[in-house]
Every structure is written in structure tokens, then in C-alpha cells.
Amino acid sequence: MMLALVLFLTTLALVIWQPRGLGIGWSAMGGAGLALLTGVIGWADVPAVWQIVWDATFTFVALIVISVLLDEAGFFQWAALHVARWGGGQGRRLFPLVVVLGALITSVFANDGAALLLTPIVVAILLRLNFTPAATLAFVIATGFVADTTSLPLVISNLVNIVSANYFGITFNRYAAVMVPVNLVSLLATLGVLWLAYRREMPQHYPLAQLEAPATALRDQLVFRAAFPMLVLLLLGYFILAPLGVPVAAVTGTAALVLLALAGRWHQGGRGAAISPLKVLREAPWQIVVFSLGMYLVVYGLRNAGLTQELAQALVWLAGHGPWAAAIGTGFGAALLSSVMNNLPGVLVGALSIEQAQGIPPLTRELMVYANVIGCDLGPKFTPIGSLATLLWLHVLSRKGITIGWGQYMRIGLAITPPVLLVVLVALVLWLRVLGAA
């Protein structure tokens, strides 16, 4: 097991630090290559892992393409300006509105899209309104945290969700039936905790006159007008086609291609195009495809070395103490694991361990599956290395002149995350009992 663990930790370190700009995909694939050469994994593991990650990976890429296209069209800035106006010039009204906006964007465009696209827009608006540094930090922390804590509702809301749903064969509809109500609890808990932490930083008033009209943010009217019907059709497609066996990536990819065609005006020979689809495609996160396969192969080495079997025994012990212990123990265990090893490998370690745990009642096993997702969605907020999205979010903030040190981040994360995580896990147990009795 020691060799597999050393390979994993080395690969994770390279992924996080990216020495000399080394891409995360090449670091992960290098680790996978070493795992193959040393016998930690075998060639037969490659198709097994690809089967687990391909749908999640290409769904993620398609969602980011859609998000970037809408961002280029001015969609997110338009939405943020509307929210700023709905705040009515009152800081304490604006704060929950921004949190709710972040939650809505996260549910459809995934946590990465919300954190990376909404945060700089919110920062720009706050600076325009002359918010104090302390108030700006409060809103920035809110947008960063809500992107993860409310990434539960749909399979597409987080890469972690897609991996787990595909691994356990959970349909899009069943996942939503369980997690949408739980996510509402998470939103309320997140808002409550953030409010308690930052209510004193909220300005009493802000000058609405300094805000431009939302319509001025729009740079591509055609793509903007297509956004709302496309999103409605996309969500309907998930609920209708996913139960028929159509991969989520196929539905999302089709929507991305349609939006690319509209953005490039391919039906008009490119006339009137305000967005470069080729630029968007070039800048899409293709490295995540290589990263997903490489990193999960390295994680599979931990499974082959027996780590997940050890964790499975711990899960059996938790299950023996009833559903409450199983859900809360699994959720916090997944959160701690994600905070130190990143949530993408963390969710697969948890899924493999749950699968190997024998003799657990069906309802308790289902609780553990969803608790693992919750822990891996919320757990990354304990530390900056818990998710790649958080590292990128911190990088975006530093480019905007806002520096959040690791110590400061962890003090905030350790204060905010545990109560939200506990409330959400309690809600999961109660809601699954309701569904089970229905």
C-alpha cells in the first residue's frame, strides 16, 4: 500500500502546485503511467476507470463551454446587475440575493462555473459601489462558499455528483428527488451561517445611481435571447432522456453545440458574430479529460492496495450503529478525506469503499451514497486544496487584488462548514425516511 500512497500523494502535490506551469492533466497522467509501470494498477483497470469518468468529464467540459459562451454574451453580468438593483440600495438585502443568485447559477452551471464566472463580476460591481474591503470580502466569501455548499441539487451541479450517480446507477430523476430538498436546506443553512459571520460588515446603503442598466452588459443579443429557452430545454432533456439511458454528456454536449453554432452565426456564415466559438473551444478545460482518467487511475491503485477495503470495514461498523451514525459518519469522513486529498479522488475512494462494504441494509447504503456526495461537495471548504475550483477561485481573486491567505481561508472554512454540513446530513436522513415511507 505504501507505494500506491506515495504515488498518489506525489501526483496530488504536482496537481496542486503545478510547478513551472505544468498542467494538471499531465501531472495526473504521469502518476498513472508510473502506477502502470510499477504494477500498482494493471492495463485492465484503464477501461474500468474510463467507464466511471467519461460521462462526468465530458459533461463538465460541455457545461463550462456553455457557461463561457453565456458569460461572453454578458448573461451573468446582466443577472448580477439586476440583483444589485433588486437590493434597493440596502446592503443587508443585497447579501442574501447574491447568495441565492450563486445557488441558482451553481445548480445549472456547476460549482466551478459559479465560482469562476460570478465571483469576478460581483467583485467588479462591489468596487463600483465603493464597498469597503471588509464588505467586499464578505460577499466574495459568500460567492465562493455557496458555489460548493449548494452544488447538491442536480447530477450536473458538481462533477462529484456525476461520478457518484454514474457509479451507483442513480437516475437523474431519483437523484433530484432526494437532493433538491436537501439542497434547499443547505442554502438556508449556508445563508444563516454566512449572515451570522458577516452581518456586521454589511453596508447600510449603497448608491444605485452608480449602476449601469443591465441591458448595457449584453454583448450578444442572439445568444442571450437563446439562453433561457435553451436552459429550460436542457433541464427537460435531463429529466426526460436520462431515464431512457441517454448519457448526461450527450444532452449537455448537444446544448453546447447548438449554442456554439448560434454564437458563431454558422447559419449566417459568421456574419454578426460577437463571440469567437473557436476561442471558446480552445480555452475549454480539455485538461480535465486527461486529469480525470489519470487521477482516478492513481486512486484506483489505492483500491488495489487495499485502502478502500479498510475504509469499507469502518463503514460497516458505522452502519451497525444505525442510519444516523452511518450518514453523519460517512458525510464527515468524506469531508475530511476531500479536504486533504481533494474531492475528485475523494468521491471515488468513498464510492469504492461503500461498494465493498458488505451486509449493510439497502436504506443505510443509500444514505451513505448520498452522504458521501454531500461530504465531498461541502468538505472541500475546510481547506484550500479541497477542490481545484477553490484553488482557481483564489487565483482569480489574487488577480483582482484580493488576497486570502491559506490560514485565513481555513479559519473561515473551519468555522462555517461544520454546522452547515451537520444540518444538511440531518436533513438527508429525515428526507430519505419520508421518501422511503411514501
TrEMBL record:
Annotated InterPro entries: Arsenical_pump_ArsB
Broad class of where this protein is predominantly found: membrane
Keywords: Cell membrane, Membrane, Transmembrane, Transmembrane helix
Membrane association type: Multi-pass membrane protein
Transmembrane portions of the chain: 23-44, 56-78, 98-127, 134-156, 176-198, 246-263, 284-302, 314-337, 409-432
UniProt-annotated location(s): Cell membrane
Protein name according to UniProt: Arsenic transporter
Organism per entry: Pseudoroseomonas ludipueritiae
